[in-house]
Design goal:
heterodimer, A: alpha+beta, Beta-Lactamase, five-stranded antiparallel beta sheet, 14 helices, 17 strands, 50% helix, B: mainly alpha, Methane Monooxygenase Hydroxylase, Chain G, domain 1, 6 helices
Chain lengths: 553, 220
Amino acid sequence: MTKKIFSGTIMVALIIMICCVGLIMGVMYDYLGTQIYLDLENQSQLVQEGMKLSGQEYLDIMKNNPDLTVRVTLIDANGDVLYDTHADETMMENHVDREEIQEAILDGEGRAVRESETMASETRYYALRLDNGQILRVSTDHYSQLGLILDNMGMIVVIVAVLFALAMAISHMVTRHIVKPINDIDLNHPAVGDSYDELEPLLHRINQQNNKIHRQMEKLRRRQEEFNIITESMSEGLLILDQSKEILTHNQSALQILGAEKKSWTGVNALQLNRSEPFRTSVEQALKGIHCRHNLTLGGETYEILASPVMNKDKINGAVLIIMNVTEREVGERVRREFTSNVSHELKTPLTSIYGVSDMLASGIVRQEDVSQFALTIKEESSRLISLIDDIMQLSRLDENQVTQQKEDIDLYLLAGDVLARLQRKADAADITLQLDGSSTMVHGIDYILDEIIYNLCENAIKYNRQGGKVTVFAGYERGTSVLRVTDTGIGIPKEDLERVFERFYRVDKSHNRQIPGTGLGLSIVKHGVAYHGGTINLESSEGVGTTVTVKF
Amino acid sequence: MRNRFDQQLMQLNVELVTMGALCEEALTYAIRALFQKEEGMITRTLEAEDQINQKEKEIEGICMKLLLQQQPVARDLRIISSALKMISDMERIGDQAADIAEIVKYMDRRDMPAPEHLRNMSDFASKMVTDAINSFVNKDLDLARKVILDDDVVDDYFEKVKKDLIEAISRGDWTGEMGGQFYLDTLMIAKYIERIGDHATNIAEWVVFSITGSHPEEKN
């Protein structure tokens, strides 16, 4: 714009300059012509007077006088040249048809301009009819228009150059001045009224659009923020990819799960984030338009990748990957599978021996005196079955929270003493000393569940003890809470099993002909019972030294 | 034009990462076939090796196209030339994993004498491969240099495995043709794993070269 205004102004200046020169030249030329004619008239008057006074002598003096600036010619009425200052009159042709002569013959005086032989020069003639009918003609050479220009060219060029430079400087200033307000417009906040009137509609429009853009940006920003808040608070990893597998969006959980550095991965190829087979397959399948789920194991945890294609009008635009931790689900499923297989096994073992024994009894191959022995086996196995089923029922009741009995205040210390008294016979048989410490402490709970907890813990302490060992039970207050602690001097629990002993049917001794009888449900019942009373259970054990179970209500 | 070039370089990068991932898989499968005797692992190793060979050809094609069409210079040229070298190392890793799987196929199911060293060795080599690829993915110079140094550890493990085998032979744990076969197989596997460590080191060296433009200083 600056350029255009500048060149425009310069152009105008140039045209005006050229016109001025031309016009001035024209006017000057005209003025010059008039002056020359006046001059010639005066000269002719002088010559006429001279001729009247001195006659032929005057003419002779003038002949070939180099100081003479005008040419004087005397012509008779027929046009024959009688005298000429610059040439031999006898050699000159008849002048009767010359324009100025004709005019002089008719009107008494005549004027004419003719190109002369030399370039850029012309001759002006003035003819005067004398009283005797002869015609006196005075002429002079002078510059033509072109000659005038050529003669003054140097001066014209200098003047035009100076003027041009001046015009440039002024144009530059003017242009700057014009453009400045436009440049000064703050396009972010165009204030209507500060600039040219002609720009007001434009500025107004810009203002409107600015506001619109601002509103839309704000809306987008809010939406982005909402999206971010939603995705960031997800514990599942979220990845959105475009069709070239480049990451468009990811949340922090995704980075955490994939063990990636916490920075922006946008625009990075997803394979750089993780290149394991399930991840690759998920991405590839999703980008082929297939919904799929794959399991991914990372750092001991199991994750499930849910990959879905993003379709737009039958065209795949990208993929959305959701990665969630399914470790617990997997573990749960494993525990359930093991539980089922354990239950069937535990139920089948006593039934098999009952079946075998009764089969023998039925076929009559058992001697009469052995019958009672066999019946005892059946009884023992049946009682094992019953206690097993009792345990399972107890557990499922606790599972379902189906305890109908009302809670009441129970003295844990008294209850523990009661349990120990019942176990005394078992302890004696295993040569184990029982000891009860503490004082009376009240727990709000259900008596038979608490009884079960203490009984199971103490029974385990006796069962998994060594010859001549000791079981210490503490029931009392510790830091304001009721605590039950059972300590034994037994075989202990290996570290890797500590986590799992509360699982149903889990037994440290996994061989099928176990030395120590039990269902594997005891600690499970304890755990659920404690949970039912809102307590916590803590297990400390070192192999070969003993185990301490602490229950806090 | 530039844009297209950058895109092709990016694609090269992605293909290299994929090929690296395939190498890791092949090695993991081979090791699982060796120690856990998991079903189907041998086939999966061989499948992965197939895919690795295919990827090598693909990447070679990309590199050649880039070299001919774009005539890269300086850093770009370095990236492409090291990619060409890297894929041959990766391909070798795939081959060696397949070789291990082949041996496992014909090994009887008896346990090796003192397998801890061989197990540690293979775990370590597989970590080296992962690290080498990670250093490439993240352009991590420090990690690449660490992988280069790690080569000595694998070599040490190889010596230990050899010693274990010699001890087992002198104790006469197994005798006869089957026994000899078994010792040799174990030694071969150890050697293959040691070679995999070397290739991982090479990859790391190419990573260093492609980033810095100079080969890592020779270690003594």
